[in-house]
């Protein structure tokens, strides 16, 4: 998988941009839904979050960051850090074993890892426990291109503290990457559900397609910084939590151009990103127009939700 070090940079960043940027308008709160129309400052806040996440395409994200869905568990947050074990390695049942890799690219043709109790029940520090159930199937989506497809099948991890507090996450759906020297395509159709004893329940359902094409004369090479090129983003996010459901649709009317020679953020020097927000009180359209290297995009609130 020699190109995965480059896939990680752009794919992980763009997916984070879409998920986290959309969530900026729909994060959990302790108060009731506001019935007022979205204001320009609120639109600016959403755009600033999305802009910040898009900038991560030039950061140090890994392929694991792309494959790690929203709502990180307390295990990832370090609660079990001192134990330094990996339950997916120590307790999962691998089928077939050993996996078959027909094209020799280090991605198995197909392999499923299944997690069951009590094998995947672990004791932690000071009486905490961690349980892992469900399955993950990894497949190689192409015999010619670099690719990786991960299918989460009700993969559930649960951390329970001695005082009864718990954190539970369930993952269902697919994430996939395909790449060659000219660029890559990434798909995210993952639904992540989260529940905890002190914050209730929430879910985030994605349906994204991200494409990146290297500029003419460039090359998507292993272990190298992301080259200049253009990417398009199309998809939706539906977020549900205790106050209701909000949906975001993202499109790219004009491809976003990443300038590898730019020394300041944002490194997107042209292009248009359009976000449509649909909530209990109407619809709002927000447009981010990128104009130059190192210059923040112009944010336009096209329409606002009607007040009730």
Task: Describe the structure in brief.
With 308 residues, this protein is mainly beta. It has helices at 4-23, 40-54, 63-67, 87-90; strands spanning 93-95, 110-115, 121-123, 129-139, 146-160, 166-180, 183-196, 200-214, 229-241, 244-258, 268-279, 282-290, 298-303.
Write up what this structure looks like.
The chain is mostly beta strands and 308 residues long. The protein has one domain (4-27, 38-303). The chain has four helices and 13 strands. It has helices at residues 4-23, 40-54, 63-67, 87-90, and strands at 93-95, 110-115, 121-123, 129-139, 146-160, 166-180, 183-196, 200-214, 229-241, 244-258, 268-279, 282-290, 298-303. Strands 1, 2, 3, 4, 5, 6, 7, 8, 9, 10, 11, 12 and 13 form a 13-stranded antiparallel β-sheet that branches. A hairpin with a 2-residue loop joins strand 9 and strand 10 (244-258). Helix 1 packs antiparallel against helix 2. The radius of gyration is 21 Å and the shape is globular. The chain starts with a helix and ends in a 5-residue tail after the last strand. Residues 1-35 and 57-88 have low confidence and may be disordered.
